[in-house]
Amino acid sequence: MTDLSIRHDIGSSLAVRDGRAELFRYVYHPHTPELESPKPYLHPLRTRSGRTVSLFRPWDHVWHKGIAWSLPVVDEENFWGGPTYVHGKFYVQMDNNGTQRHRRLTYIDASYGKAAFGHELDWITQAGARIFSERRTLTARILSPDAWALTFETCLTNVSGHDIVIGSPTTRGRENAGYGGLFWRGPRSFTGGKLVTRDGVGNGGEVRGQHHAWMAFAGRHDGNGAPSLILMVDHADNPHHPPQWFARSEEFACLNPAPFFSKEFLLPHGESARFRYGIGVADAGAEAATGLASAVHESLAPAAPGGRRAEAKASAATASAAGPGTPPGRHPGPPNGGAQP
User: Fold this and answer.
1) Which of 106, 134, 227, 281 has the lowest CB atom count within 10 Å?
2) What is the pTM of this model?
3) Are β-strands 13-18 and 130-144 bridged in parallel, bridged antiparallel, or unpaired?
4) DSSP characters for 35-93?
5) What are the tens digits of pLDDT across the range 209-246?
6) 3-state secondary structure of 184
């Protein structure tokens, strides 16, 4: 099995490599306009054979960035990007585009067949108020010669001084537009592809808004027509599990297990909310979705308490490479597991 490695472009991004091939790049310090609610993102995202399965800043929705964790309705703030849905007025551009600001990388480690890193950041409103402190961890694993998995864990802590309500355009009155959370935007060539669930295969109009523990998108690439499959699994401990899904296939390719699709979530001041997701990427078609879902689900099994076995193996040199703000030899653990979009 190929060993995974991590290349760090200090102050900018981390790239996880499968031998000499790059599986994904995590840009933790983006340089994007305030209008797009700057946030960390994963792009490009690739299969093990090197096919790109993500899209960055498409002209129709420039705030779509490969895979990103973003929220359109946080009280009256927008951490998604672009205009805000206002019932009766549709979408209105407001001075409320917040930023997920990089604070520091807490550890970087490639060992035991995995590549993992931790990230701390602050959610800052356009007016300059700090409302969330976030800790997230990303862990990549090889599943087979044709597939790999990524675990995305995040812990949001309300530091605003008041209770916060998280929702979506649907909770504000727009029907079947409950996007928000971990969102994937696929390549242009995937338009017209198939969405796969445990119940079968359909298109976005058929499955959008349904509750599922997992969902996959099967698409094909320009040129040789090769198939690729991307899949997301929602952990059973996540709030509002199993989630409703925001998914499209006709207009463009996207997947989003949306925990606040049609039900608001109250996060009191000083309390935290944890979310854990598995992402599978494969050189395969729709027929491989069920097996990939099972393998990704297994990769979501809880790690050792606090993830500290991996941290203990991280070297002091790796800690130093994490950049300013990371004390040498200190590797804090990941959080405990847990139209117009």
Assistant:
1) 227
2) 0.89
3) unpaired
4) GG----EEEEEB-TT--B---BS-TT-TT-BBEEEEEEEETTEEES-S-EEETTTEEE-
5) 999 999 999 999 999 999 999 999 999 999 999 999 99
6) strand
